[in-house]
Amino acid sequence: MAVIAILIDDMFEDVEYTTPAKAFREAGHSLVHLGLKKGAEVKGKKEGTVVAIDLETGSADPAAFDALFIPGGYSPDRLRAHKEPVVFARAFMETQKPLFLICHAPQLLISARVLEGRKLTGWKSVAVDIKNAGAEYIDAPVVIDGNMVSSRGPKDLPQFLNTCVEMLSKH
Amino acid sequence: MAVIAILIDDMFEDVEYTTPAKAFREAGHSLVHLGLKKGAEVKGKKEGTVVAIDLETGSADPAAFDALFIPGGYSPDRLRAHKEPVVFARAFMETQKPLFLICHAPQLLISARVLEGRKLTGWKSVAVDIKNAGAEYIDAPVVIDGNMVSSRGPKDLPQFLNTCVEMLSKH
């Protein structure tokens, strides 16, 4: 089964973490939470869901993980203000292993400058930033581009998770 | 004295509203709070500062105001998910009257597609989006480009407000 890295910080969209975490675990996968500080507890923006950071992003090796998942909310905006998560996201993108993005998650990849020529979706407020980064924004529940899966937000979670879990089962 | 429109929604950075509001009022200016719904109370993201919306953005006439101020935090991201604030910001930009931006405020102008060729600053996480929108990002406490004044965040408030109040005194 897969070891999935989750890049997360405070103000994440609770349901965009809790629902995928449950689905991935039920499918038999393991989760490793990467963040700015090992041992820190980060909180969701609506329900205050608490997530403990297992590993600092700066100490994480992309080769150690089979997939990367980035939940939305304002966590991606907070993460991209720091060098390490941006560097990790860029390095992981280069491995071409499964990468799962939802809502505001594309912001981190815009900062990593890896979206040029790619197709994806995301929360409507960041559509303009996705386009300005040289990518094609597609207004659909799920967009698959190679090993990159993206969705717009909480309403797309069922389709997003079906696609992600199916992709993981093939790796 | 000037009538200043303030475009604001939930999750604004408290101090980026409270400090400018105090400074503008002390300088004799009036404030009109524009938002998504008249009469709504919007709240700051850290201290829960409550601001009552005076007027819906969709009903506001840019000609009625002498200046526009957009506080930061996640308020600009929320506002730009709606058409009316984006349309208002674009129309106000065209009047060439004083426009004050701090922190994440440039996000709203990126969505309005009015930043190409302009010089500004903003919160470090949105620097890449500002550049991708065709503007020049300058890492300085205050950037003045015509009647547009921008700053990076809370630490720049003293210099930001000196510049804004001085500009208003000349109008």
Helix content of chain A: 25-40%
Task: Give the N-terminus to C-terminus distance of chain A in angstroms.
Answer: 9 Å
Please state the overall shape of chain A, judged from the principal axes of the Cα atoms.
globular
Oligomeric status: homodimer
| Chains forming the largest contact | A-B, 20 and 19 residues
* Helix and strand sequence of chain A: EHEEEEEHHEHEHEEEH
What's the story with the biggest beta sheet of chain A?
7 strands, mixed
Beta percentage of chain A is: 15-25%
Instruction: Give the tally of β-strands of chain A.
Output: 11
Strand order of the largest sheet of chain A: 5-2-1-6-7-11-10
Radius of gyration of chain A: 14 Å
- Mean pLDDT value of chain A: 97
> Which structural category fits the helices and strands of chain A?
alpha/beta
The number of helices of chain A is 6
Could you characterize what this model shows?
The first copy, chain A, has 171 residues and is an alpha/beta fold. Chain A is built from six helices and eleven strands. Chain A has helices at residues 14-26, 75-79, 83-95, 106-111, 127-132, 157-169, and strands spanning 3-7, 30-35, 41-43, 50-52, 55-56, 67-70, 99-102, 119-120, 136-137, 143-145, 148-151. The radius of gyration of chain A is 14 Å and the shape is globular. In chain A, 50% of the residues are buried. The A-B interface holds A 11, 74, 77-78, 80-81, 104, 107, 110-111, 113, 123-126, 128-129, 132-134 and B 11, 74, 77-78, 80-81, 104, 107, 110-111, 113, 123-125, 128-129, 132-134.
